[in-house]
Amino acid sequence: MASITLGGNPIHTSGELPKVGSKITDFKLVATDLSIASLSDFAGKKLVLNIFPSIDTGTCAASVRRFNQSASALANTTVLCISRDLPFAQKRFCGAEGLENVVNLSDFNDGSFGKTNGLEIVDSVLAGLHSRAIIVVDENGTIIHTEQVPEIADEPNYDAALAVL
Question: Which of 29, 47, 60, 119 could cross-link with 130 by S-S, CB 3.0 to 4.6 Å?
């Protein structure tokens, strides 16, 4: 269980992020076209998993915009923006913002991605949502960087995540 904060108040997640050097666990997430996406859909690509509570918060929206901007310059790399938002909300946000360099995926069905990766917030008003975290995976599915953002209202360390690519 990781201890993070929300507005300086302690809250907790269901576990710890996967360890650097381990393999990312396969997933089934819902894309904005309502298809099911899994790890095999991104085989051979480097992945930046930008994980957050909701696209409808300023910090989460800022991280999607920032990674959208950075992603266009990254060779063989896909940025996956993962939350428990409905796919319709994710599609609406990216359409309104003109964001085309990220892939939005939703864990709204059962939250299994968050539970498997220790991301589910277990207490506070955000219980059931994902914490803010970054997981970077190489083209072989090996985790090469993780960051559990300690204060949920803060942005992740973009430079650290992108530096490993």
Answer: 119
